[in-house]
Amino acid sequence: MSIMESMGRRKPRRPRRSFMPEFKAEIVGLCRRGDRSVGQVVEDFELTETAMRDWVKQDQVDAGSATG
User: Rounded distance, CA 8 to CA 56, Å?
Assistant: First the structure.
């Protein structure tokens, strides 16, 4: 297989998952307390870094410490 052939193939997408607000709050809490880095949480819970950062940002907006 050539490089050009392999470039056209993508990993299959996994189904979109939804998470309960309580789960999101617990995960954000782990990051805010400094128990684990965002990277560790993402890896441990098989999340995407983008989703994790969005959750943290939304938590800051909800707490009034950021605008959004």
Answer: 34
In the numeric block, the tokens 């819970």 are attached to 45
Mean per-residue pLDDT, 9-26? 85
pTM value surpassing 0.90 = no
Residues in CB range of 38: below 8 A, 6 or more apart = 31, 49, 52, 53, 56
In the block, residue with structure tokens 């995960």: 27
Question: Could you tell me the residue ranges of all domains in the chain?
Answer: 18-63
Helix axes 21-33, 49-63, angle to 10 degrees: 90
Residue in the structure block whose two tokens are 């441990």:
44
